[in-house]
Amino acid sequence: MFESSPPPGAPGAPPHVHHSYDEAWFIIEGTVEFVLGDRRERLEAGGFAFAPRGVVHSFANPGPAEARMLVMGSGPATAMVEEVGRLSEAGPLSPDTLMEVFRRHDSELA
After folding, report:
1. Across-strand partners of 51?
2. CA distances, 68 to each of 10, 61, 65 (Å)
3. For 39-82, what is each residue's pLDDT tens digit?
4. Vertex 54, ends 76 and 26: CA angle to 5°?
C-alpha cells in the first residue's frame, strides 16, 4: 500500500491491465476519475475503486484541486510503480521503455 497524488489536469495512468494481480484505490482527498473496463467513475474522498486482474483500467485527477489516494496492490504492482518512478526521474519514458517495464511485471498497456 502506498499514497499517490495524481497531479490535477494531467493525463494520468494510461489504460493498462495486470494479468496476475488486482489493484484498488481509496480516495483520501479530492476527486479521481477511473476507467474500469467499460465503466467510467468519478470518486471523491471516501470513495473506493477496484480493478480485478485482467480488467483494463486507468485513472487521473480531473482537477482543478489536488487529490490523494491510497493505492493497494500486491508486491509486483508496487515494484512496477517504483520502477516507473525511478526511471521517470531522468525524464519522460519512451513508449517502448514503458511497455518493457509493464511486461516485466506481468502487465501491459492497453
Report:
1. 23
2. 14, 9, 10
3. 999 999 999 999 999 999 999 999 999 999 999 988 888 899 89
4. 65
Place of cell 474522498: 45
User: In what order do the strands lie in the sheet containing 2-4?
Assistant: 2-4, 68-73, 23-29, 48-51
What is the spatial distance between Cα 80 and Cα 19, in angstroms, rounded to a whole number? 13
pLDDT of residue 97: 94
* One-letter identity of residue 45: A
Res 4: pLDDT: 94
pTM for this model (two decimals): 0.90
Which three cell numbers mark 87? 526511471
Q: What contacts 27, CB < 8 A, 6 or more positions away?
A: 43, 44, 45, 46, 47, 48, 49, 67, 68, 69
CA atoms within 13 A on the CB side of 91: 1
Strand ranges (E), 20-95: 23-29, 31-36, 39-44, 48-51, 57-60, 68-73
